[in-house]
Amino acid sequence: MRFSPYWPISGFYFFYFAAMGVLMPYLGLYLQSLGFCPRQIGAVLAMLYATKIVAPVAWGWLADRRGERAGLIRMAAALSIVAFVGVYFPAGGTFPWLMLVMAVFGFFWNAALPHVEAITLDHLGDHTHRYGRIRLWGSIGFILTVLLFGGLLAGYDVRVVLHGTLALLVGILLSALFLSDHGGHLPHREPGPLGEILRQPRVLALFGACFLMLMSHAPHYAFYSIYLDEYLYDPTTIGQLWALGVCAEVAFFLIMPWVLKRVGLRGLFLGSFAVAGPRWLLVALFPSVLWVQAFSQLLHAVTFGVYHTVAILLIHRFFVGNHQGQGQALYNSVSFGAGYAMGALGGGFLWFHFGGEFTYLVAMGVTALAFGVAWRWVRE
């Protein structure tokens, strides 16, 4: 990759997803150590991601008003650090306080990524098939932290999750200091055409399918470590299983340019949904069989790596010109915001009342519905 912002953008992805590599697998274990029940754990995690419903759109509007993105990314990164420090306050072990902290922290932390995605695609220009070569640095960061903290949790207090997250948030801010907008300032966005884009059936279907896909993934992200812990997997093995899935994702990102030149976006998109259902079925039916769990994690390359890449590229294709930043913001709001929040809340309720196996079976049904929506209405 030759464009000058390659390393700042790659650094941002690295630290952002490294922080996610701590929070996603291990925040639930930290909350469990505080005595929280599955419904409370699901609510805290849902609050963290529910802010994605509002934050990307609100900050996207602010970016349009100010005419630039990089400065807002730096502001959001700095304020997310300030907000996260709230977990160290004396009330940090209580459910109401953590709900408040996650709401404020999530509003700032979730604001930056859509604008980094837009900056990345702006710089790539006609070479969007190279997106995976940059995005893979995020996966590498996730792998390193999920392995590192899996080992640390075997010998240290679970509060190491908080310390590691705070350090990585500082890394996000440092990398954000070197980001720059493509070609200077953003042109002002015209509201009319955006409404026309949003009324297209293929765009509505894309958002609907993405909402359902993340809804099906949310219980896995929120409770998979707890699920494995219930079946007596040690923290190191749990971390290795998480890392295995992201290693498979990295492998896809490396071959993504070759794949995109030979397979259409719609075919890849449908394939990701077709694989997700069997993945959740395997997790539900064979929780104590290590090699089955390892295989299910390898499918992450398809159910997230392929899915997310194609979704990003379809958004970039459907939201042209000055609307690309808002398109990425809406994608994050609908999928990683509303979809994840609904899945985490619903997953917490189902987990509490019916157990993990039943929750994964419901997730399988959700992916079947998503496949039907994508098959019927999503066109390139």
3D structure, described in words:
- The chain is 82% helix and 0% strand.
- It is mainly α and 380 residues long.
- The protein has a single domain (6-181, 191-377), classed as Growth Hormone, Chain: A.
Per DSSP, the total helix count is 14
Largest sheet: none
What is the total domain count?
1
**Proportion of strand residues:** under 5%
Task: Give the termini separation.
Answer: 27 Å
Uncertain segments: 184-189
Organism: Candidatus Kentrum eta
InterPro entries: HcaT-like, MFS_assoc_dom, MFS_dom, MFS_trans_sf
Subcellular location: Cell inner membrane
Pfam families: MFS_1_like (PF12832)
Summarize the model shown:
This protein is mainly alpha-helical. The chain is 82% helix and 0% strand.
Features:
single chain; 380 residues; mainly alpha; Growth Hormone, Chain: A; globular; cell inner membrane
Which helices and strands appear, and what pairs or packs with what?
Layout: H1 6-33, H2 38-66, H3 70-84, H4 95-124, H5 131-155, H6 160-176, H7 191-198, H8 201-230, H9 235-260, H10 265-285, H11 290-298, H12 300-318, H13 324-354, H14 356-377
Helix pairs in contact: 1-2, 1-5, 1-6, 1-8, 2-4, 2-13, 3-4, 3-6, 4-13, 5-9, 8-13, 8-14, 9-11, 9-12, 10-11, 10-12, 10-14, 12-13, 13-14
Keywords: Cell inner membrane, Cell membrane, Membrane, Transmembrane, Transmembrane helix, Transport
Transmembrane segments: 12-31, 43-62, 71-89, 95-113, 134-154, 160-179, 203-227, 239-260, 267-292, 298-319, 331-352, 358-378
Membrane topology: Multi-pass membrane protein
